[in-house]
Each structure stands twice: as C-alpha cells, then as structure tokens.
Amino acid sequence: MTQTENKRRSWVVGITGASGSVYGVRLTEVLLKQGYDVHIVVSNAGWRVLGEELGWKTAQRELVLSEKFGGHPGSVYYHPVADIGATIASGSYQVEGMVIAPCSMGTLSAVANGSSDNLMTRAADVMLKEGRPLILVPRETPLHAIHLENMLKLSRLGVKMIPAMPAFYFHPRTIEDLIDFQVGKVLDMMRIEHELFRRWDGGLAGQAKAAESGTKE
Q1: How far apart are the first and last CA of the chain?
Q2: CB 77, CB 1: distance < 8 Å
Q3: Which residues, in sequence order, are CB contacts of 155 under 8 Å at separation 6+?
Q4: pLDDT in tens, 62-80
Q5: pLDDT tens column, 140-191
Q6: Which end of the chain is more exposed for a tag (fewer CB within 10 A), N or C?
Q7: Distances (CA, A) of 3 to 7, 76, 78, 118
Q8: Is there a contact between 47 and 73 (Cβ–Cβ < 8 Å)?
C-alpha cells in the first residue's frame, strides 16, 4: 500500500490494546465501503488483541490489512505506531478527523495530558490542535476517578466520548448486531449516514401511533 496524496475524504482510525478491536475493524470496513480512505494506526498491544480476539495472523501486518480490507471503493493506508514522521503526524495533512476504537485508558490518559510520543497519540494531538473531530470509544470496566477525570478533561476540549455500551431496545439477535450498534453510534457522531441498526421509534407506543395513523389514511 503506497502512500499517496489524499484526494478523497479520509479518516484516521486508531486501534489500541483495549478489548473490542472488532469495533475499529468494523468501522474501517464501513468507511471503506462508503468510499472513504482510512489511515489506520494500531498500537503494539492492539496487534496482540487482534490476534487474541479475532485470530488475525499479525506477523506480516501490511499483508494482513490488505487481505482484510481490500476490494472496497476506499483505500486503506497503514502507518506503524512508531512512525512519528507519517503524514498524519502533521496538521498540514488534511483528514476529516480521527476515531480511536477501542481506546485504552493508557492512550486516553496520554491524549488528555498532551503526551505524543507515538503516532497514535500524536495524530490525536493534531486533531485537537487543528480543531478537527476526535472521537474516542473507551473500553474499560470498572472505571476509577483518574479514568473519569481524563474523560472529563477531554470532553471539555470537545472530544466526543462514545463508550462501548450497546443498547438492547432494538432486540439484537447476534454479537454482530451489538457491534453494528456501537459502530453506528460512532458514525452518527462522524455525520456519516448508515443503516447499521434500527433507530428508536417510540417503542410500543410509537408502533401503536404509527398503526393508528395508517388506519386513518
């Protein structure tokens, strides 16, 4: 995957070592299918979780990403987490914004405290300084005071927090349904249209009202 100047809309997607790497994978798939280019950064712990949770063979990282994300309208560009000189480390390189999904508490803490000693945290710092959207999907439980204080600090800076908390009002039947709900909430915050989950329609009351309207017509 040769890096070229970005001519289409593109997002940065970060995957850290928190459980739930499938969220970042599914988000990347949806973006590529919709024609967005994706700059992907995976922490070393993130690669381990991809192997543990999804069974990815991560010895040849660029190859596995090409296999998993090839064949879509959008293109994926892989940046090693140690490559602090990558395009996305500079504010002059134009992207729509960045999503870290899942976001470990270590990465969240680094972003909250302005530490940018790797490409993941540097790219997030660029989003903050350039005023571009930064969306984090924290995945940890239980949360202690430091976690919450770091989230509050970032929230006050305009960073959007979308914790991995799937809903059940739409009666999910599979794990994939729960994953799509979470990814759909992220896409909503990105202002990207999708049909990954059924939206709230008022429940039984809403259905009854719709039926009544239909009868009157």
Answers
A1: 56
A2: yes
A3: 161
A4: 999 999 999 999 999 999 9
A5: 999 999 999 999 999 999 999 999 999 999 999 999 999 999 999 999 999 9
A6: C
A7: 12, 9, 9, 19
A8: no
